Amino acid sequence: MSCAAPTGRSSRSYDISFGTSRLLKNALQCLPLPLAEGRGEGGLLDSSLKAGRLPIMTNAARAICTLLVAVSLLAAAPAAGQVLEREVVIVTPDAGDERVTQTHDAVAFWNETLSDLDLGVRLRETDLVVASENRALENYARLISQRGGRLPRGAAGPQPPRELIDLGADVVVLLSRQPLMPFAWPLPGSTNYFVAIRAVEPRRPGDDKVLRNVIAHELGHTLGLTHNRATATLMCGPCSSAAAEDNPLEWLPLTADDRARLRALHGAQ
Known about the structure:
Blueprint: E1 10-11, H1 43-50, H2 59-75, E2 84-92, H3 98-116, E3 121-130, H4 135-147, H5 162-165, E4 171-175, E5 183-186, E6 193-197, H6 207-222, H7 241-246, H8 256-266
Parallel strand pairs: 1-3, 2-3, 2-4, 4-6
Antiparallel strand pairs: 5-6
Helix pairs in contact: 3-6
């Protein structure tokens, strides 16, 4: 996290040493469930639950998680008049990957939204890491995607690989080679996140539009937003891919509750 003026992105490899902060470790043991993808009346999350891939979070547990997330983000809020920058690093197997542009666009969407709300936080892309093989990150992503609902969070959960920590970002976005379930996973002992985005499905009509909204959805979790039950909104849960495909606008909308939560968490500049 930084309050410095924005700088340009650069490309680099895994050669940067970084120590994560220890801010509100316990608050990160419980955060929003990841977004699954699929079609049908039941939506994305429902189909994943039936397949046994995600747990059902009780209302009481969800309320506790929401409170803990709010406490952690409020503790990291900037002083009045400052803009807190959450640094984003994108990891991709190919610099020409279309998801790189989609991630740029999703970051721009959030920064425009945060600016319109006059909030004191922004996302800032600091690096584009191009690596043909990211075995450590891909393995970690597969573990979380396949078993995320059954894994403990925080210090008791699976520890991130050194290659992930060394990137030194508040948010690391992995553009995975795998057809995994996208997610935003809180890293233990910090307010940092690991976001994984599934591989492109070239034969799927409208996949470009769906993926753009999936990426924006997961970045929304890194800003403290949780799921709502309106399937045709950005922070849906369960969701319908058809809602993104059929939406005449570029982005699915935020709800009034989403905006109120952002104001409560990040305050005015």
